[in-house]
Amino acid sequence: xxxxxxxxxxxxxxxxxxxxxxxxxxxxxxxxxxxxxxxxxxxxxxxxxxxxxxxxxxxxxxxxxxxxxxxxxxxxxxxxxxxxxxxxxxxxxxxxxxxxxxxxxxxxxxxxxxxxxxxxxxxxxxxxxxxxxxxxxxxxxxxxxxxxxxxxxxxxxxxxxxxxxxxxxxxxxxxxxxxxxxxxxxxxxxxxxxxxxxxxxxxxxxxxxxxxxxxxxxxxxxxxxxxxxxxxxxxxxxxxxxxxxxxxxxxxxxxxxxxxxxxxxxxxxxxxxxxxxxxxxxxxxxxxxxxxxxxxxxxxxxxxxxxxxxxxxxxxxxxxxxxx
Length: 324
Fold this sequence. Notes:
By secondary structure, the chain is α+β, with helices and mostly antiparallel strands. About 15% of the residues lie in helices and about 60% in strands. The protein is built from 3 helices and 16 strands.
């Protein structure tokens, strides 16, 4: 008799867990999360949520978050979660895959961003003791973002930047083990033909090393949007560069870089002064910066510099060179 009661209880618990995981939990999430967004006068819509309570997998489709205009949206996200590690206060995600996300960043004429309201904290009185007891570590085995688009618009300077068809991969991130993982980004843009970033990072001490490749980056609009108050004005410059870099932040700050850079159509003005170069090629530039508590050491070496069609005008002084 006791065995039958135990079996009934197990069956009921199993049935309740199954119904909760497959049916009730997705409905609760879809109804509750938009209410949190409404507290910020924002809208969050979710097309569908599927949960598997036995494999701890989730599939979320058709998410869009907006206020006056869209802030982000994505077609689909798949998560493989490992709940056992919650016992040790570790949020572990074995796999996270996001398909076709699109992010919209807007800078208003008053300098405010369209997401600024998310950064305001309503409760600033939480004690440090509470934060320590509720702090979680994070681990991500693999993160993959496919066909992402980033749109940035600065209304104060009529500046637009778009990064298209971005593919991003992250592996082996663990705050518990002090690893920020390996990162890889491939993107195209309205300001550059191709952007490739590879990086490896770790904590305690903070170390970052990797490679950046930029092909034909147009700098004029970037300068207008972010550096318009500088005394110099870059009217045009197209930059292509391949940079190997290393950052080390421990007792000393060490920065190392090896770059191959090609800059075309350089046109710089400062008041009535002009500086024009059709091409500036630096095939091998090595830079090494070390900053300790006692001194600052900087070393830089350039194998050679090729300058084509140099022209300058400084008030009453003019100079022209076909090649240097």
